[in-house]
Amino acid sequence: MENNKIKYILYIATGLLLVAAIAFGVMWINSTKQIEEMEELFAIEKEELESEYSTFATQYDELKIRISNDSLRMKLDQEKLRTQQLLEELKQTKADDAAEITRLKKELKTVRAVMRSYVMQIDSLNRINDKLTKENKRVKAKMKEANETITTLSEEKEALSEKVELASQLDVLGLKMFPAKKNGKEIGKIKKAKKLVISFTISKNITAPTGDKTIYAHIIAPDGNVLTKESSNLFSYENKEINYSIKKYIEYTGEEQEVTMYWDIEEYLQPGRYRLHIFADGNMIGYNDFNFE
What we know:
By secondary structure, this protein is an alpha+beta fold. The chain contains three helices and nine strands, in the order αααβββββββββ.
């Protein structure tokens, strides 16, 4: 009887041990499976963190393309370097190092916040730059329009000034030149002449300045030489100094005025074509050719 009780107790103890072993085995299997699942999750999380860090590092380069501010570009380079350093730390971290993974995850939040602030700052700067660029274009267009207006007005003023200047120039009518005797009477042969007589009328011009004026006669002989008494007898015309043959002072009133000038012949004058130019106020106001026998 006593032996049966002992056997019964042994059976029960063995059963309990077996149940406990089975339960422990199940718990161990479940625990191992959970650990493997957690390690797999940590590995996936680490991979995702690495991807995000890499993306942020690339985005800093993309942001640099959108700006020209050297100071801001330098700051972006610094943040990119910091992001790359954290990425390198993450790569060196084991997937089951929960504490380090957690720290780097918090660092990623900071990186994300910094990136967001730079994006907002750059967008704001670009909007301001776009506005300034448009305003600059508008101002340039206005300036161009104003300059074109000024140029047009200047050209019109210059053209008007030229017209006024042309209108105010003296004009010669009936320009004549002939060989004459000593008393001024015209003769046919220049070889016998003692004078060359020049006569013309200055026409009426109410726009021309009145007052004292100097009239210059410029006579070119058939041989191409200018008739002049002295080589120092010069006047200015178109920024050049030209010899004159005869000079006469008149007082111009704006009305028609007869003018006569004389060249005393003291040299041999050959027959042929003589050219005569009349000048006043720096302008040539009359011209004609004459053939003398």
